[in-house]
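agent: user wants the structure for Lipid II isoglutaminyl synthase (glutamine-hydrolyzing) subunit MurT from Cryobacterium adonitolivorans. delegating to structure tool.
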Amino acid sequence: MRYAPAILLGRVARTLARWRKPGGGSAVPGLVVNTIAPGFLPRTLNGFPGGLVIVTGSAGKSTTTKMLVAALRAHGLSVFTNQSTANISQGLTSALLERVSLTGRIEGDIAVLEMDEGHGALISASLDPRVVVLTNVMVDQIDRFHDSDMVAAMLAKIAQRATGSVVLNADDLYLARLGDGIAPGVSVARYGVADEVLAANPRGLGYTLTSPTRLDAADGMVLTGVSGLDATVLVDGRVHELRLPARGTHYAVDALTALAAARAALLDRFDADVAVAAISTIPPVFGRGEVVSVRGTTVEFVLVQNPASLQLNVDSLDPDTEQILVAVGSDVRDPSYLWPADTSGLGHVLIASGSKSYDIGLQLAYDGVLVDRIEPDLGRALDDFLALPEPARGVKTIIFSADSMRRTRAHLGLETNEADPS
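agent: tool returned. relaying tokens verbatim.
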């Protein structure tokens, strides 16, 4: 009961935050609890009977986590997980407050948590995860992490806390090196992408590839094919077909990651058919290929968070898309951060918006993309974009950075944080 006062205060803070900002304020109650009871978060996370699974890396965390949770639940496990956008320490604590009792316990067999690599490294010394899942290392959030070596060092710090398994992308050079240094007694489960898939993605998958890129099928799971929303994976010598929540090879890699993580968490209970079926049914994850109906029209949301995700999403965009709005906000502090991406595949953008509207508009112009209008006022841009007649081909598509995603959802009256779909 020593955490009861902190839990009660956190819940009061949550109520006040939601009253002041409906749909937002998710980090406030966690900040309150972490300040007055710093031991609450690690004690609760370490208390699940089936242990703790941490999913971390530069990109793919949210989608991988949602897929993994679906696979584990399909095997009959009761899973606690965090909101897909609440992956820093105060967000994690806020997610716990939704379900924790006054004694600091949560009903559930296992916890699966998406974790920001920076915050995860800070709290890792107090955690004892049974499984750590590493997605990739990219040039990401340069204002925080500076370079890929720094990201790799943080992931290594988290991985060293694993007590059972470390699941990693064997095609990622940084992770391949990291896997060689895992402590004795902790297994390393590797997965990778077949050469045929890599050849179909000449721009790469956003991370630095090992050379040569090879993965013996006996050592792990292999992504063998991707076509639109369909993918094939090789698991223990058997080919399985699965359906992706959104277009793009990067989503297929997320599915492969989730399968490898599910096997590491379930051990002998793992059934590839059950896991594949569960993963094939999940909807897009909060802004990542999510299709919504708003103001009588259908809109696809495409979230980009770094140069690699911008490139991968541009490359996988439906070529029939004729109405596109691109919005880049204050989270991209240095607009040159996105310059490595070749946006020429967009062809024609109706509106460039957000606080960095002129900057992204300039990049698009240099890449040969026709931009009809620059509109810094995102609300006005959204209103005008949605008021346009229905497109003759494709659906209205909004490509946005994280800041513009939150502002877009708020302006349109949509939830700005995704709850755990229990």
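agent: one observation worth passing along. Residues 249-266 form the longest helix (18 residues).
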